Amino acid sequence: MASEKTRLDTQQNTDRFLGWVLVALLFCFVAYLVGVYVFWPQEEQELVVHEPLPQDPPKPAKPFIWGTLPVSKPGPSSDKGERQLGGQSPKDSAQAEQRSTPQKLPGTSSEAAPYAFFAGPELEKVKGETVRALKSGDTQIWKTDDQRGYVLVSTPRHDGDRECRQVSYSLFEGPLQSLSPASQWCREGRGQWSPG
Fold first, then answer.
1. Distance between CA atoms of 128 and 166, rounded to whole angstroms?
2. Rounded distance between C-alpha atoms, residue 81 and residue 83, angstroms
3. Is the distance from CB of 107 to CB of 115 less than 8 angstroms?
4. pLDDT tens-place string over residues 21-61
5. Overall average pLDDT of the 187-192 stretch
6. Residue 13 CA: distances (Å) to CA of 21, 41, 72
7. Cα–Cα distance for residue pair 153/167, rounded to 1 Å
8. Which residues, in sequence order, are CB contacts of 135 under 8 Å at separation 6+?
9. Where is this region: Disordered (predicted)?
10. CA–CA separation, 121 and 112 (whole Å)
């Protein structure tokens, strides 16, 4: 009897010891997770680099500038004499005249570049993107074969129960974009969008 009681006591002591070991291991694991979360360097999250997605438009080679500034030659001015009388030398007044004259922007010519137009993609191939753009009012990217561009929609115009938008397409050609003529799409109430 006594040996069985000591065996039971030994078994209980062993079970209690194993329980405390498991609690200690669990505590160490939780402490490790907290330490990793608190002390892990945050710089690694900043090293993520955005790689352009295949549907992203190519980056333009030069900045896009709307229009050009006219370049005018400084000619005789009626207020030159007044400036010279005001204490300015002829050299200073010539520099002031040059600064006040609009200058040509770097990388542009004085002649306006013609806009490039194309007929537009085949409607059957881009109808889904066109309808999505018409429904949301946002620009959508279209892609067929080796061509891609944007579906551009105007703000809606309402005429009674009829809603209409102008739709045009852009085409990426290297760093340049071409534009298609606009066509009108309409729908009755909440019906389907259709051209015409």
1. 16
2. 5
3. no
4. 999 999 999 999 888 888 876 555 555 565 655 665 666 55
5. 88
6. 12, 43, 101
7. 5
8. 193
9. 54-111
10. 27
